[in-house]
Amino acid sequence: MNKKAFIILKLFATLGKFTPDSADNYPVEPGISVRDLIAGLKIPEEKAKLIFIDGVKRELDAVINGGERIGIFPPVGGG
Length: 79
What we know:
- This protein is mainly β.
- The protein has one helix at 34-40; strands at residues 5-11, 26-28, 32-33, 50-53, 56-58, 63-64, 69-73.
- It has one domain (9-72): Ubiquitin-like (UB roll).
- It has a five-stranded mixed beta sheet, with no helix packed on it. Strands 3-6 form a two-stranded antiparallel ribbon.
- The protein is globular, with a radius of gyration of 12 Å.
- The chain starts with a strand and ends in a 6-residue tail after the last strand.
């Protein structure tokens, strides 16, 4: 039996449509990567441009163990 861990998941701007109902207590397998997380949420990888874990910018290969606050932003532009 695999033990579940939980994260707080925030998806911003155009990624909001991928937000699961359980985002404030989202179950994950300890040790998965952010890449695995976004794949499971059906978010195209190129749409997940900025990733923050507990307020620190991280990459797609960052490991999730549970208890983290994860924010994912799409590409942004301005002028």
